[in-house]
Structures are given as structure tokens and as C-alpha cells.
Specification:
Helix content is 36%, strand content 24%. The chain is of the alpha/beta class. The chain has one domain: Glutaredoxin (3-Layer(aba) Sandwich), CATH 3.40.30. The strands form two sheets. The protein has a four-stranded mixed β-sheet with strand order 2-1-4-5. A two-stranded parallel ribbon has the order 3-6.
Amino acid sequence: MRAEVLSVTGCPHHAAAVERLRDVLASAGLAIEIEEHRVADAAEAEALGLRGSPSVRIDGEDVEPATETPSLCCRVRTEGLDFLPTRGAMVRAIEAATRRREQP
């Protein structure tokens, strides 16, 4: 399983997103290294499909519905009141990735 945190360079919420994802992965019994991507410009945001900062992906899938176009802005959250993807969104993404991997 692949776990990523994408954020713009200097995002004040990057470290907290990594920590939350690390906690969720550990709670799921997964010892996975988190790939951290710091996005420097609009072209890189477009290439990576960054939908706001910070964004979390599991197996290449954003843990939140991606309604925004790629950009260097802060992420608008669809769930929760802080600046990070919720634990619930991360758990659901991990569960979905696990189901996909178990399918023949």
C-alpha cells in the first residue's frame, strides 16, 4: 500500500497531516513509509493533481472527494472543521485500498 501527503511548500499543516496519517496507519497495523511531496509551483500541482494543501492519498486515491481543480491553495474540507483530512476519511481510504487489493 502506498501512502502520500502532498502539500505546498511552507504549508503549516503538512506535519500535522503526516502525523495524523501515521497514527491512522499504525492503528490499522500497517507499517508503511509515508511519501511526502512538497509542491513548489502551479505546473507541479497540475502534474500531481494536488487539490489543495494538504492532501492525503492512499494507493494514489485522494482520501477526500476531489472537487477542486489542481491548485496551490489551501484545501477546502468536505468533512471536519480543521485543516486536515479527517481520521475517518483516512480509515475509509485504507479500507477501500485493502478491499481492492483483495479482489481477484
